Structures are given as structure tokens and as C-alpha cells.
């Protein structure tokens, strides 16, 4: 008997497993593949995800394997620098191959005690009042209290759960891969400069040792389960660029579409969905993996609280009420960005206009805060602007705030030195620091770093501690 079975050990499943283990939840992750992903595409970790990594002591590992880049230039690939003074101690982007971030997150989950079984696909399940019986493709049956589908865009769990996945199918597809080329670099660079002015979904970028990363629109929308062939790449390069650049010896080849869909519900009873299993959208702006990891961060402590028995009655429901609107917004911004990438004259004119508007600091800032997810504010009711936002990694007397959040517990940061979270000390840490770099007297942080309360009154604080952390231990 496990507490939680997670289907899928992609970035979302691995992050969720680690978050649950911080609270001693018995976790089993079932991953259908036996080997790491064959593609090595580089994904961008945006500011909020980097903050989450810092909050769990993972950022240094990630920085060792990734490349830091400026945070700007991501909305519809419009090349504008990030505005000055973004409200984060980690205001940059890290480019990192997806298999590497997956490995780092899986290692982190295993270090914390999660069990991961590769080569096991979830094929079916049944839920009852006490738990879920999960059936593997080989027929084995396992029992857990909860099941979370982190099994990607074609999620078996979502389909078996019967949750609607409304949205739009792919209208276009793009081929992506890494391969060697047969013409000199200067010739490629000149041609790419010329073609990419009219085609946003086109590049050949040197990747080292004669290997290029190639991106080119596909001829139509095909079967995404079928990988493209080298001939598909050659043909499309000839159609778009007039030459196939002599491409040969591919390292890997894949295709992706621009389907946009959002699960109607994130939870039915004891079965939940997170990451691509709950939402898919085009990769423009590089948000999918970030969104999934952030889902896991939101869900982990709530599901753990439910299992540990201290969750207030509606806590687990806030996973959907908080994260569904965030995904809706990401889907919308990717729809907008996709339009802005069209080569048609109308969208091109809108793109030029938006490019001008982004010279206004507020417009640029708004778009960057959206893409990087630092602008997210959950609806915790009326209150100061910071309420519901995440708190940046401020300086406190012991060093940095995020270093105090590694254990995934709540934190009461008290500049008045006269408040207490003592009755909740098994779930909430306390830091008295009159000189903390904060405008407010006192803030209560949830384990995901969002501000759950601001004030200086103990009785009001106790109400909010109960709201988020349940009844105090006797
Ligand atoms: C070209 C491209 C570029 C991208 N660039 C970025 C970027 O820069 N930044 C970004 O944030 N995102 C990016 N993304 C999106 C990102 O790759 C996905 O959003 C991310 O992988 C989702 O993670 P996940 O863990 O939710 O799902 P997945 O990564 O799909 O993982 C799901 C896992 O579940 C396993 N699985 C499936 N079915 C079962 C089953 N029945 N039982 C057990 N296991 C199962 C799969 O093998 C897989 O390991 C990009 C996507 C594409 C296509």
C-alpha cells in the first residue's frame, strides 16, 4: 500500500514525488519508458521555476548543468531586453537539455526516498472510498490512497478518468531535430538570416562538432506518434529555403504541433492530473515544463497534508481553483503568440505594433511577468497586493529566505518579534527578524512560497494558520 502512485516520471511527476517525500509520504512513481528520452532539446527554465529550485536547494545543481541567459526576448520571440529591476533574486533564464533536468529531478526525488519503477505503464485503475487500485500493463495490481496522472499530453490516466480535454487540435506542425550539414557555416548563416525574416518557425543553429539544431515547418499535420524521417526534413528545407543544406546523420528527430487543450477538471475523487496531462499548448515562450513543475509544487504539500491528516477540508480543492486559471492564462498567451508568429500581413502588423508597445516598460514588464510566472497572484481574498503573490528571495538574518524553505514547510516571518506560530510548529517554521528586507510587519508563507497572510495581529494570524495549516496539534 502506497500513499500516492504517480504515473509518469517526467519533470512534473519527479517534482511531485520529491515534494511529497518532504512530508514522508510513501510515493511510487511508475514510468513507462526504460531509457531517458532520446531527444536532447534544450528547454528554458524561467524565473519562477528557478525560484522553486532555490526553495528546495536544487538551484546550484541546475546552474552547473545549464546556461544562464537574460530573461527577455521570450514573448513571441520578440527581441526586447527584460526591463530593469525585475522583482526576483533569480532574474534570468537557464537553458538546459530536458533529459538533464528530468534526471536531476528524478535523482532529487530518489534521494528523498521516492521509489521509481521504469518500464511500468499504468494501464487501468479503479477508485473506491479508501483508495485506488492501479493496474500495470503487465497485469500487476497495486494499491494506493491517491493516484496522480503526470503522464503527459496523451495521458492514459486522464482518458480513463473520463475528464474532458476541450480545446483546438493542431493546425500546424514543426519538425525539430539535430543533424550534421554538408555546406559551410557562413553559407548556412546567410541563408538562415534571409529565410527567418519571413518564417518564424525556421532555424539552423550550430550545436558544436558540426551538428546543427534544425527547426522547419512540417508539410502538414501528421501522426505525432510517428517520428519524422530525414527525407521529411530534406524536403521541407528545400521547400522553405530552396536547399536542404546537405543534412545527414541525424542524432534525433521529432515533431510537435500547436494543439491547445485544457482538462475540464484536475481531480475526480482520489485521482488527480498535473503537467501536460492537464494542459497542452504550443512550446512558444517555453512554458510547458515550467507550468507542470509549478503544478507539482502547488499540489505536493496539499496532497501531503491530506494524507498526513491535517489538511483543512477544502485545501486539496484549491489545487484546481489556483492552477486551472493559471493554465488557462498560459494557453491564452500561447494562442496570442502563435498568431504573432504567422507570416500573414495582418498578424505581422500586430506584431510590429506590439514590438513598439513593448518599448513601454509596463507592457514589457507585464509580458515578462506572465511568461516567467512571477506575476501569478492566487485569489486569497481581499488584502494588500502582496497577498496571494509569491515573496521574492529576500535577505534575512540567516542569509536568504529561500534557504529556509528547503523542508517544504510553512514559514512565519515576523518583524515585530511578538507573534507566534508555536501551536503549528510541526508544520510551520518561525523566523523573528526585525531587519528582514520586507515592507510589512509580518507575513505567513505557504510551503510554495506564496503569501497567505500579512498583518500584526495574533488572533487574525491564528485564523489564517488554521485556514492553511489546519487545526493545531494538541
Ligand atoms: C519543441 C518543444 C520545446 C519545448 N520547450 C520548452 C521550454 O523551453 N520550456 C518549457 O517549460 N517547456 C517546453 N516544452 C514543453 C515541455 O517539454 C513539456 O511541457 C514537459 O515535458 C511536460 O512535462 P510532464 O512531466 O508534464 O510530461 P512529459 O514530459 O510528457 O512526461 C510524461 C511522462 O509520463 C510517461 N508516461 C506516459 N504514459 C504513461 C503511462 N501510462 N504510465 C506510466 N508512465 C507514462 C512518459 O514516458 C513520460 O516520461 C517544449 C516542448 C516542445 C515539444
What would your notes on this structure say?
The chain has 474 residues and is an alpha+beta fold. Helix content is 32%, strand content 24%. The strands form 6 sheets. Strands 1, 2, 6, 7, 8, 9, 16 and 17 form an 8-stranded mixed beta sheet that branches. A 4-stranded antiparallel beta sheet has the order 12-13-11-14. A 4-stranded mixed beta sheet has the order 22-21-23-24, covered by helices on one side. The two termini are 28 Å apart.
Oligomer: single chain
Structure annotation, total helices: 12
Bound molecules: flavin-adenine dinucleotide
Query: Which sheet architecture does the biggest sheet show?
Result: 8 strands, mixed
How much of the polypeptide forms β-strand, as a percent range?
15-25%
Straight-line N-to-C gap: 28 Å
**What is the rounded Rg?**
23 Å
Going by helix content, strand content and strand pairing, the class is alpha+beta
Kindly list the characteristics that best describe this protein:
about 475 residues; alpha+beta; eight-stranded mixed β-sheet; binds flavin-adenine dinucleotide
Amino acid at each position: 500500500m502506497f500513499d500516492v502512485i504517480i504515473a509518469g516520471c517526467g519533470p512534473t511527476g519527479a517534482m511531485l514525488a520529491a515534494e511529497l517525500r518532504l512530508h514522508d509520504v510513501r510515493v511510487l512513481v511508475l514510468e513507462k519508458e526504460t531509457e531517458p528520452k532520446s531527444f536532447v532539446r534544450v528547454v528554458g527554465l524561467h524565473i519562477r521555476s528557478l525560484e522553486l529550485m532555490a526553495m528546495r536547494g536544487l538551484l546550484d545543481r541546475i546552474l552547473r548543468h545549464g546556461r544562464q541567459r537574460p530573461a527577455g526576448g521570450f514573448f513571441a520571440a520578440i527581441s526586447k531586453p527584460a526591463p530593469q529591476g525585475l522583482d526576483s533574486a533569480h532574474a534570468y533564464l537557464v537553458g538546459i537539455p530536458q533529459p538533464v533536468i528530468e534526471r536531476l529531478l528524478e535523482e532529487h526525488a530518489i534521494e528523498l526516498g521516492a521509489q521509481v519503477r521504469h518500464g511500468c505503464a499504468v494501464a487501468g485503475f479503479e477508485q473506491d472510498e479508501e483508495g485506488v487500485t492501479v493496474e500495470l500493463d503487465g497485469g500487476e495490481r497495486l494499491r494506493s490512497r491517491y493516484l496522480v496522472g503526470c503522464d503527459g499530453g496523451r495521458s492514459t490516466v486522464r482518458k480513463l478518468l473520463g475528464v474532458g480535454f476541450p480545446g483546438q487540435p493542431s493546425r500546424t506542425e514543426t519538425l525539430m531535430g539535430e543533424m550534421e550539414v554538408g555546406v559551410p557555416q557562413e553559407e548556412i548563416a546567410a541563408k538562415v538570416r534571409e529565410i527567418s525574416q519571413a518564417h518564424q518557425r525556421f532555424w539552423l543553429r550550430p550545436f558544436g562538432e558540426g551538428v546543427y539544431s534544425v527547426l522547419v515547418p512540417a508539410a502538414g499535420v501528421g501522426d505525432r506518434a510517428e517520428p519524422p524521417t530525414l527525407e521529411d526534413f530534406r524536403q521541407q528545407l528545400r521547400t522553405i529555403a530552396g536547399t536542404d543544406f546537405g543534412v545527414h546523420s541525424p542524432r534525433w528527430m521529432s515533431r510537435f504541433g500547436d494543439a491547445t487543450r485544457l482538462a475540464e477538471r484536475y481531480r475526480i475523487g482520489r485521482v488527480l492530473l498535473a503537467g501536460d496531462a492537464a494542459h497542452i499548448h504550443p512550446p512558444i515562450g517555453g512554458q510547458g515544463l515550467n507550468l507542470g513543475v509549478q503544478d507539482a509544487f502547488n499540489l505536493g504539500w496539499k496532497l501531503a497534508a491530506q494524507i498526513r491528516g491535517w489538511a483543512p477540508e477544502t485545501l486539496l480543492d484549491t489545487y484546481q481553483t489556483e492552477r486551472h486559471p493559471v493554465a488557462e492564462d498560459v494557453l491564452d498567451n500561447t494562442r496570442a503568440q502563435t498568431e504573432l508568429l504567422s507570416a500573414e500581413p495582418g498578424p505581422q502588423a500586430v506584431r510590429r505594433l506590439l514590438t513598439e508597445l513593448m518599448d513601454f516598460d509596463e507592457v514589457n514588464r507585464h509580458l515578462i511577468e506572465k511568461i516567467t510566472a512571477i506575476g501569478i497572484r492566487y485569489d486569497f481574498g481581499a488584502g494588500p497586493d502582496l497577498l496571494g503573490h509569491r515573496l521574492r528571495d529576500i535577505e534575512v538574518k540567516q542569509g536568504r529566505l529561500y534557504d529556509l524553505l528547503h523542508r517544504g514547510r510553512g514559514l512565519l516571518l515576523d518583524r515585530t518579534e511578538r507573534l507566534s506560530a508555536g501551536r503549528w510548529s510541526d508544520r510551520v517554521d518561525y523566523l523573528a527578524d526585525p531587519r528582514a528586507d520586507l515592507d510589512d510587519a509580518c507575513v505567513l508563507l505557504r510551503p510554495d512560497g506564496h503569501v497567505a497572510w500579512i498583518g500584526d495581529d495574533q488572533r487574525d494570524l491564528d485564523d489564517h494558520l488554521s485556514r492553511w495549516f489546519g487545526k493545531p496539534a494538541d
